[in-house]
Predict the structure.
Amino acid sequence: MPNVVVVGTQWGDEGKGKVVDVLSRKADAVVRFQGGNNAGHTLVVNGETVILHLLPSGVLREECKCVVGNGVVVDPKVLIEEMEELEARGKALRDGQLVLSRLADVIMPYHRELDILRERRLGSQKIGTTGRGIGPTYEDKVARRGIRLGDLVEPEVLRAKLEAALPDKNRMIVEWHGGEALDLEAILAEYLAYGERLGPYLADAAGLLHRIQREGGSILFEGAQGTFLDVDHGTYPYVTSSNTVAGAACAGSGVGPTDIHEVVGIVKAYTTRVGSGPFPSEADGEMDEHLRKVGHEFGATTGRPRRCGWFDAPLLRQAARVNGLTRLALTKLDVLSGLDRIPVCVAYEGYDDEFPHDLTTAVPVYEELPGWTEDITQATALEQLPEACLAYVARLQELVGVPIDVVSVGPGRDQTLVRGDLFT
Ligand code: IMP
């Protein structure tokens, strides 16, 4: 298989975990390259649901290396809990299967605290973050005062970095937000213990990926969140704090751009968004409720109800450009079964092919496509889908201009219909 980047093309929750899990069968390594445990990737294997927040979705394939790249922000407590949960389910990591970049930044207790306190202060202006400390951790990384995973196994370095950082953080927590000061010795003891537990997994992750490439292996890059949550290309300021687009796979892992061969965009057959921010094709009360109920649209990380709406083609055309998409995988098509007619946003009023930099003023132009009544969850090949369903997929492909080579009709691994022989 070539080296493939998988990214979300909307506002996250497109079903990337499932597609990565299916593709990981042909990969030697699966790499997370940005974001942290704000992500929630749901996999259903043999009827059992597994939700991963930090571990790459290849973790259920024993022969596959799972790499947490330098671009990820890691909450060590969450990572350890996730490893232990897998162990308890009899799916423990094989020796050498997990590799953590020494260079990845660590989410500290003050990052989580500040994330929550700031959102509280913003009130109705809040971003609607996951409260996991993602933004404050990336801020410290860019300000060059972050704590990296490698520091957790160096007691003196960790102490010095904490002594430098904590007074300022406590001042912000106590004086600006009226919170409670955090204790340096307690944090130090807690994080050194994490270092001891995670130490055996720390490595030169980029070096490992280079070696896999030299030996002719293939790498799958697993994006988190979605294109319109990207800190540059998304609906700023209602975005996450990392670059979520395909280009970030290189910076966040240490693999060069000429070594990326395919970029697969994951797209839901409709659109959802969690948190605040513009959403041009958001559905009205009744249909929003219907999609949420049938599609089980509640956040895998926070349990928050997702806002639901219709497929937005201009959004996807922009996603195709900024990610350089070579293929699309369409997910949750089964959720649309039973609708009489399905609206699709084909353009924004007054915009031709350029993309408005501010989506709050975008007015969608809709086309209505005929629905289908059949249950499609048992289909095992694309040809078995009802005619109206195939016409819906064909129209989306035509509107976006990128081939839809994968169609998912349910949460299970086997409910994935593939056109041709994807990446043999
Ligand atoms: P943060 O990443 O926690 O800072 O949250 C910033 C914005 O990104 C909020 O609107 C979140 O709801 C959204 N967000 C972050 N991670 C995800 C995800 O994995 N899926 C969907 N939305 C996300």
